[in-house]
Known about the structure:
Blueprint: H1 37-51, H2 55-65, H3 67-91, H4 93-107, H5 110-121, H6 127-153, H7 162-182, H8 195-205, H9 215-219, H10 222-252, H11 261-287, H12 293-303
Helix pairs in contact: 1-4, 2-3, 2-5, 3-4, 3-5, 3-7, 6-7, 6-11, 11-12
Amino acid sequence: xxxxxxxxxxxxxxxxxxxxxxxxxxxxxxxxxxxxxxxxxxxxxxxxxxxxxxxxxxxxxxxxxxxxxxxxxxxxxxxxxxxxxxxxxxxxxxxxxxxxxxxxxxxxxxxxxxxxxxxxxxxxxxxxxxxxxxxxxxxxxxxxxxxxxxxxxxxxxxxxxxxxxxxxxxxxxxxxxxxxxxxxxxxxxxxxxxxxxxxxxxxxxxxxxxxxxxxxxxxxxxxxxxxxxxxxxxxxxxxxxxxxxxxxxxxxxxxxxxxxxxxxxxxxxxxxxxxxxxxxxxxxxxxxxxxxxxxxxxxxxxxx
Length: 304
């Protein structure tokens, strides 16, 4: 979206570029917006101001209305606003920032609603592999969508960058329709599940008790804050890379936008593979009593 010609001096780098790059241009076309580095940072970061606000409320709401609907509505919000992004970006910078904040609010309910569904669907000794398989969708989605976005941006189709939002936003809406038609909150609500599978899931999970949330115990629990710190650090690195790596490679390292698409997706491909493998490994270790659940998670989390 950004025109990189005539950037401020602090946005440029020396002539020492790595490897196989094209120093003359990073793309066959330039974006239409002239925005400084600080402004670009605010736009990219505004999504997360909304994202953080619905994490805890999202978990509570998923318990009330069900993870299926909440997850679907969250994706629908983000997808619909993605379709509006080109129009709003050309209309108003503050409007674009507000739109991205609202996108973050919509997307913030996704992981909490997934956890609500995991609690109802995943047998105890299969949770590591199944949750890691589900989470890995974020990575494989990046592996697929990043090259698509790069090719669209480098094309002359409808201005280059707007089709990225149109294509991915439309795919998101189509996905939501399929999700709401095919997915159900609990095994006993699913019309096509076999009796044997439903019995296996329900016997493994056991009967759900309606307990009052012990907020004081939660907030004073040292292990919980340790998990939160590890999760914070992991997500800080992952989202910084997701948000900034494409811009860094194109505008700072001057990598050619087409020739180095695969290099951009390598971190996410590696992450996808390791998420799936580690999930299966954790369940194998626990199921065969090589280590208990606590030590299995300590070893894998620390090695990560």
